[in-house]
Design brief:
Chain lengths: 525, 426
């Protein structure tokens, strides 16, 4: 495959996606307006308009949009590859994801039938009014949710991942020191520490970091002040790529909200607020079964969290709107998952009568609640909060809930975690395995929630800075291994899974950056 | 007997495990009140008896108690307001720049208590003020009660008719302190987080008033209302929305026992820095420290600075949506009940650190010591204000740095213990 054709394909795709977007029409409008300006001359019209767009910052906005597309959409693998290869190139992974989805749907459908609740129904007018009044305080509602159960729990998902096998792979060799001792038994390529050190080079010992070099003992002149200054400059330039590079060393708290928005290419457009209001009215008008699942999950998780209980009401608002958002369907082109379809009563199988259910294609919320909550510390206006969450979801979080071979997918993260642990702490790994405490059984729940609900909020935000900065979730696996390394001494002494869980139950005092640095850069391998 | 001679003998009339566990872990010996004791953690009723004219007795040099005899100058709502008003007038008379007023006649630096009047004594003054803003809401608090008891909101003069009648009676109406009320302008634009109202509870330890030496506990917390805040008038009677005392919130339907509706101050700081920026957050915390110190300075001249005494106060502060902190009240007996496991740990550590400062080395105290503990024993406390240190640095520095009040000096990062002093001004 020639590099050129790959590039031109990518360009063509980006052009196609941006054409007709609101940015496109804004650029056109700006170009037209600029015609009135004296510096635009007819002879050099094209050049002059280009210059104008550059100096007025519009070129930057276009750059940011292109950069965003590059980040989110993977490059097409081959011009002849069918679309499902962009979702997931490996057939056995696609199959596994398909069966998993079928299982979830079955569970949902049987819950529906058992409780005789329709998947969706229009709300009566008085109920609509009531909900509108209560919109900002849905947390005070106490609907009877005892009959609803989460469609699946993280450990169910882990079981599925454990049973993944590549039918083309013959691991018929005798067990040896090279045998993988962990739960994941698929031969995906994961990075080793030398490769990780290269990828995460900005986390090295000689580079300043927020989360380490801004502690009280270090005078701010050494690193912090300059870093803040650079951050302000990046924001002034409104450059997404620069921001992404910058946050690898951590965001100053006061700049974080704006930096993340810049990286995710979210600006304050009036049409975005309108879109959110539209979603809100969809929620008001129609009641979906998944709404009850959302309520239940929020009640079970965030309401009891030391940090996030305050934002319970925002969580309902964001998640209910999210479930109505059909623009989320777009991400299914590069996700291994497929949105479930539902058919209008009596028209089963007839494509013209098919709708996606729920409208955004996502059923289970158990793991979403916690990844939304930390964002409430940064964005206190629901429309903005919503957009940031949605973008974080379609860029990163969806990979934690679907079966794929992607390096940031949950399967790879699990394998990366186990490999790191087995390679660098073999004695610990072996010991834990012997006592029936496979490490992944403990760390899975951390990774599948991107550590939300386990770390202190300020530490979590420092971790997520790096997720955005490196556009990858691999850091979650590295951190999980680093946590085990940190508590290795205590873990070597336990003799049961329960005791191991107890040693690792409380991560709220951990400082994330020193752990990562020590594990990657200061451990003798 | 010989073995026990060196150990501190303690008494308490407050049966709380966070106290007793702390005494026992130091190997102190529990004794009865009528025996020889060295340390008495007493309730406010008891301190009244100890220092009363009729029933009081002299404390010997090796006896320490946890209240100042007339703490009520600070901890009774009406007296606190009276003392602050008096303090402000004195500063004004001296021509101090601290007493500077703005074009509306409001104190620039010393306006931190919501407008307050005593009822029924100041009823007419109150009415005058009320009529300036007839749509305002006021909060009525009984002077002598705690835990949110007896508090209610009003927005119409007719709701406090009773106090008008009382003030008009010509004959002397005996006013027991229990019937006196204070009425304060209600902060109806509180800062909301997640749509919820909250207040701040901060612990401040005072070891001496003259010279003033006080410490602030780093681990204060925010108490959230369980019900969404609305300033609407129909909700005035819903105490769960407006009052944040844990004792009241605990009975609301939504009260959650796992987290008890509390946030640490460091969470608050993270949230404010992330959503409002670092400068305004630093300014807010600076102002909070300022108003605490000013309130202590205001009562220092009238406090009986008995050397047998120290006191740990619970300060209640509300932040409005312009990020201005308001002092609501000061508690002499902050609750030692724990509503959650985290709470229990916090209060246990609070008492532990307090005892380390008040009873150095855990040994039999000598009330004549200089009350200057070494930095290492402070634990989670930080020096808030040390008058002796401040004076040795020169008095005029205070005025200069106050009017050019700066924001982010390292010492302001209260939770890290780099430098011990919290304030940028002396």
């Amino acid at each position: 495959l020639e590099p050129d054709s790959g590039l031109s394909l990518t360009i063509a795709r980006i052009v196609q996606r941006l054409q007709g977007s609101s940015l496109h029409s804004q650029l056109e409008r700006q170009a037209r307006v600029s015609l009135h300006k004296p510096e635009i001359k007819l002879e050099s019209l094209k050049e002059d308009i280009k210059d104008f767009l550059k100096t007025s910052g519009w070129e930057k906005k276009l750059q940011n949009a292109v950069y965003s597309e590059l980040n989110v959409f993977p490059s097409p693998c081959h011009p002849a590859a069918p679309p499902e290869h962009m979702k997931e190139p490996l057939a056995y992974m696609r199959k596994a994801q398909g069966s998993w989805e079928k299982r979830i749907l079955k569970s949902l459908n049987s819950m529906c039938t058992e409780l005789s609740i329709p998947l969706a129904q229009k709300r009566p007018v008085n109920e609509q009014k009531e909900l509108l009044n209560k919109w900002n305080e849905m947390g005070t509602d106490e609907p009877d949710l005892s009959l609803f159960r989460p469609v699946y729990a993280p450990k169910d998902f882990l079981e599925v991942l454990m049973n993944l096998r590549n039918p083309n792979y013959d691991s018929g060799e005798q067990p040896s020191f090279r045998t993988h001792l962990g739960l994941i038994q698929v031969p995906l390529k994961v990075k080793d520490i030398p490769e990780l050190k290269e990828d995460f080079s900005e986390l090295g010992l000689t580079t300043g970091q927020l989360g380490i070099d801004d502690s009280a003992q270090v005078p701010p002149e050494f690193f912090e002040n300059e870093h803040v200054r650079v951050g302000q400059k990046v924001l002034a330039e409104q450059d997404s790529a620069a921001a992404q590079q910058y946050v690898r060393q951590g965001c100053p708290t006061a700049l974080r909200a704006d930096l993340w928005a810049l990286i995710l290419n979210i600006s304050n457009q009036p049409e975005d607020i309108l879109y959110y209001e539209q979603l809100k009215s969809n929620v008001i008008q129609h009641d979906l079964l998944v709404d009850s699942l959302i309520y239940k999950d929020v009640k079970l998780t965030a309401s009891n969290d030391d940090y996030y209980f305050v934002f319970e009401d925002y969580l309902y608002q964001v998640l209910l709107c999210f479930s109505r958002d059909t623009s989320v369907l777009e991400h299914f082109t590069y996700s291994s998952a497929t949105p479930p379809k539902s058919y209008i009563r009596g028209k089963l199988g007839m494509e013209e009568y098919a709708v996606f259910y729920p409208p955004n294609g996502k059923i289970n919320y158990n793991s979403f609640i916690l990844p939304v909550a930390p964002l409430c510390f940064l964005y206190h206006e629901p429309p903005k909060l919503y957009q940031i969450f949605r973008e974080m979801y379609v860029r990163f979080f969806f990979r934690l809930h679907s079966i794929s071979s992607h390096p940031s997918g949950i399967v790879s993260l699990c394998l990366l975690f186990e490999t790191l642990l087995q390679t660098h702490l073999p004695q610990l790994f072996y010991h834990l395995r012997e006592i029936g405490a496979q490490p992944l059984r403990i760390s899975f729940k951390w990774m599948v929630r991107a550590f939300s609900g386990y770390l202190a909020t300020d530490q979590l935000l420092l971790l997520w800075d790096r997720i955005l900065g490196y556009n990858s979730l691999e850091i979650l696996a590295v951190l999980a291994a680093a946590v085990f390394a940190f508590r290795a001494v205590n873990l070597m002494e336990v003799t049961s899974l329960a005791a191991a869980e107890a040693v690792l139950a409380d991560l709220s005092t951990l400082k994330v950056m020193p752990l990562l640095q020590i594990f990657l850069f200061a451990t003798v391998t | 007997w010989r073995i026990m001679a060196g150990k501190v003998k303690w008494v308490t009339d407050i049966e709380k495990s966070v106290l007793i566990n702390n005494f026992e872990k130091r190997g102190w010996i529990q004794v009865a009140e009528n025996e020889d004791w060295n340390f008495y953690w007493m309730s406010v009723q008891t301190i009244r008896n100890v220092f009363s004219v009729e029933t009081g007795y002299r404390l010997s040099d090796d006896q320490i108690v946890n209240h100042f005899p007339n703490h009520y100058e600070l901890t009774r709502k009406d007296l606190m307001v009276k003392n602050i008003k008096r303090y402000r007038k004195e500063l004004e008379k001296e021509g101090s720049p601290l007493a500077e007023k703005d074009e509306n006649g409001k104190y620039i630096y010393l306006d931190f208590v919501p407008v307050t009047f005593m009822l029924p004594a100041d009823y007419n003054l109150f009415v005058e003020e009320f009529r300036k803003n007839p749509s305002s809401t006021w909060i009525m608090k009984p002077c002598g009660k705690a835990q949110g008891k007896g508090i209610f909101l009003i927005n119409k003069l007719s709701q406090i008719k009773k106090w008008s009648r009382d003030s008009k009676t010509s004959s002397f109406v005996s006013q027991s302190s229990k019937e006196a009320y204070v009425i304060s302008l209600y902060i109806n634009n509180p800062l909301l987080i997640g749509g919820k109202k909250f207040d701040l509870r901060l612990y401040v330890l005072v070891s001496t008033y003259r010279p003033l030496r006080c410490y602030m506990y780093k681990l204060g917390f925010c108490r959230f209302c369980t019900v969404k805040y609305t300033p609407s008038t129909s909700e005035l009677d819903n105490m769960f929305v407006h009052l944040t005392n844990v004792a009241i919130q605990k009975h609301g339907d939504d009260y959650n026992h796992i987290h008890g509706g509390k946030w640490t101050v460091s969470n608050l700081r993270l949230y404010l820095e992330s959503t409002r920026g670092k400068e305004v957050t630093n300014k807010l915390f600076d102002e909070i420290h300022w108003i605490i110190v000013q309130s202590l300075k205001a009562v220092a001249p009238v406090m009986n600075n008995d050397k047998h005494c120290f006191e740990c106060y619970g300060y209640d502060i509300i932040i409005d949506d312009k990020l201005k902190p308001w002092l609501i009240e000061v508690n002499a007996s902050p609750s030692l009940t724990s509503s959650t496991a985290n709470d229990r740990i916090l209060k246990y550590n609070l008492i532990n650190d307090t005892l380390n400062i008040a009873v150095p080395n855990g040994e039999i105290p000598d009330c004549k010591w200089n009350k200057s503990p070494p930095k290492e024993v402070l634990g989670n406390y930080e020096v808030l204000y040390d008058e002796e240190m401040a004076q040795s640095d020169g008095h005029d520095r205070e005025l200069r740095s106050r009017s050019g009040q700066s924001t982010g000096v390292k010492g302001n990062r209260g939770r890290d213990s780099g430098k011990p002093v919290l304030t940028t001004w002396k």
